[in-house]
Amino acid sequence: MLIAGRGIEGIGLGTAQFAFRDGTAEDFVATVRAALDAGVMLIDTALAYTRAGVESYAEQIVARSLRGLMTGRPLVATKGGHWRRGDSFPVDGRPDTLRAHCEISLRTLETDRIDLYQLHHVDSQVPLPDSVGALGQLRQEGKIAAIGLSNVTVAQLDEALAVAPVAAVQNRLSYGDPGDLLTALACAERGVAYMAYSPFGGSAGPVPQAALTVARRRGVSAHRVLLAWLRRQSPNIVPLAGASRPATIRDSAAGLDLTDQDLEDLCAPAEQRTPP
Description:
Blueprint lengths: L1 E2 L2 E2 L4 E3 L1 H5 L4 H13 L4 E3 L12 H10 L8 E6 L14 H14 L5 E6 L8 H13 L3 E7 L3 H8 L6 E5 L8 H9 L3 E5 L11 H10 L3 H12 L3 E6 L3 H8 L6 H6 L4 H4 L3
Parallel strand pairs: 3-4, 3-10, 4-5, 5-6, 6-7, 7-8, 8-9, 9-10
Antiparallel strand pairs: 1-2
């Protein structure tokens, strides 16, 4: 799938866990570098992925991991309009705020252009065309290469497309929570990449039994099964696998080709597959 002119295959690495799970900076740098070694060519981060009192923590980890890398650099995506203030996470989609957040990310990521810059959340107090227009201006100035949206509906995507080209949408989608699959398919019809976050369904819920069944039969992790199911739904879907250890991202990046038997076992009940 093309994102910002780059061909992205397989999965991307999500970095929210760097801010919200235990671990050292050294652990997380090792995880990013393991992802690169495994062929992962998309790293997704955000201004909001930070530890209390440490601005842009995940972006700092990404920058440190890529420092000195001259060839084989991945596409780096980040997000603005949402940040951490103590224990709260405000949303502000005003053009001045997005510009200020973009400047922070440019400095933190140690770059003069962000590959993919995403509106993290639509601000209900700001017309979406105003927010997207600000991203379009940043693109014209060369500060960002491509525009993305996160946590949006199809109607919001179409509203944004009327203002500026949108390269990617990032929404929650997983085998256990497939309600946004129609949005992913709508993105495909519009030539927009769909980056699926929380592809394992989040840390709170159990792994679906069907995925465990396939994993045991194939001798692989359930995570690899869940990622493979997502990739089979549409060629524009790029799952973002969160990892905080090198071993887990290596496993996720290894990939899996699902057989007809696997797909039959993964056929979810109709009530689960119907969007709410």
